[in-house]
Amino acid sequence: GVSGANPADTHAVLIPPAAVTHATNPSPRIVPLRSTPSADGLDLVSPANANIAPPGWYLLTVLDAAGTPSPAAWVHLR
Fold first, then answer.
1. Rounded-to-integer distance, Cα 39 and Cα 32, Å
2. What is the pLDDT of residue 77?
3. Local structure of 66: helix, strand or coil
4. How far is residue 3 CA from its own chain's centroid?
5. Can you give the pLDDT at residue 65?
6. What is the pLDDT of residue 74?
7. Could you tell me the CA-to-CA distances from 11 to 4, 15, 26, 30, 53 in Å, in that order?
8. pTM above threshold 0.85
9. Residues 55-65: pLDDT tens digits?
10. Which of 19, 20, 45, 53 is the most buried (most CB within 10 A)?
11. What is the per-residue pLDDT for 58?
């Protein structure tokens, strides 16, 4: 949960773990999630298919209107 955020001014993203080789990440990616405000926060919809977000582990975080991220949680997409 994220407290103190206005659901109308926030959005959620998935961030995969870095794949570091030679001090660079060859596939940086941030996957925005479709979200709608609900009575108790945000309802999130996972990506439509594996081309957008391949199965695996991702950090899920919520960004406020200023772009400040919440503490992230690991989630697994199947």
1. 21
2. 93
3. coil
4. 17
5. 86
6. 96
7. 14, 13, 26, 12, 17
8. no
9. 999 999 999 88
10. 53
11. 95
CA dihedral for 36, 44, 58, 78, sign (positive or negative):
negative
Tokens at 67, concatenated? 């772009």
Bridge-partner residues for 42, per DSSP?
37
Rounded to whole angstroms, the Cα distance separating 16 from 29 reads: 7
Residues 28-50 as b/e (b if ≥16 CB within 10 A, e otherwise) read: eeebebebeeeeebbebeebeee
CB contact at 8 A, 54 and 73: no
3-state class percentages of the chain: helix first, strand second, coil last, to nearest 5: 5, 40, 55
Q: State the pLDDT at residue 27.
A: 66
Burial of 71 (0-12, 13-18, 19+ CB in 10 A): exposed
Give the number of other Cβ atoms within 10 Å of residue 68's Cβ: 11
